[in-house]
């Protein structure tokens, strides 16, 4: 399971590439073509799990150290993200992977072939995803594209409340 890529959306480091894949597209291709079943959490799905002030305050209402720490971190992250992107919500990239490990039903996707562009100066790091089987390449990755954000944040709040 990895957080990286942009299957059907714009990139965040170039117009088409997500940062984690862009920095080492060759390694990404090795993993994707290793024969090991992979699950990709790209920007397509992580941008559907967005934290905002209401969610941050709801988590903080747990009134325990873990929830308050998480809320404070999200406040800092959100302020920075809002300045850069001028939007009121901030995507939670890596926490989606943890949410999936706890409850796979929160996310959905499709098992397809994914290759990564390694050589082009224009599209380096692009996760080329064959959604409709136009190539003869066998599916090698379960690409997550949708999330139930409400369920995700409910799970997050519940799990944070258990800590301390």
From TrEMBL:
It holds the Pfam family IU_nuc_hydro. Transmembrane segments: none annotated. Residues 2-153 form the Inosine/uridine-preferring nucleoside hydrolase domain. GO terms for biological process: purine nucleoside catabolic process. One of its GO terms (molecular function) is purine nucleosidase activity. Keywords: Glycosidase, Hydrolase. It comes from marine metagenome. This is Inosine/uridine-preferring nucleoside hydrolase domain-containing protein. Coiled coil: none annotated. SUPFAM superfamilies: Nucleoside hydrolase (SSF53590). InterPro entries: Inosine/uridine_hydrolase_dom, IUNH, Ribo_hydro-like. One of its GO terms (cellular component) is cytosol.
């Amino acid at each position: 399971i990895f957080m990286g890529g942009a299957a059907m959306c714009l990139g965040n480091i170039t117009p088409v590439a997500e940062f984690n894949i862009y920095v080492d597209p060759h390694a990404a291709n090795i993993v994707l073509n290793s024969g090991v079943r992979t699950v990709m959490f790209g920007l397509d799905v992580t941008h559907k799990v967005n934290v905002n002030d209401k969610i941050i305050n709801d988590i903080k209402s747990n009134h325990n150290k873990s929830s308050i720490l998480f809320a404070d971190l999200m406040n800092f992250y959100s302020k920075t993200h809002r300045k850069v992107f001028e939007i009121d919500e901030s995507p939670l990239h890596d926490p989606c992977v943890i949410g999936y490990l706890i409850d796979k039903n929160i996310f959905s996707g499709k098992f397809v072939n994914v290759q990564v562009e390694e050589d082009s100066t224009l599209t380096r790091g692009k996760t080329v995803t064959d959604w409709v089987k136009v190539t003869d390449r066998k599916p090698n990755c379960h690409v997550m594209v949708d999330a139930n954000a409400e369920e995700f944040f409910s799970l997050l709040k519940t799990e944070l409340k258990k800590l301390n």
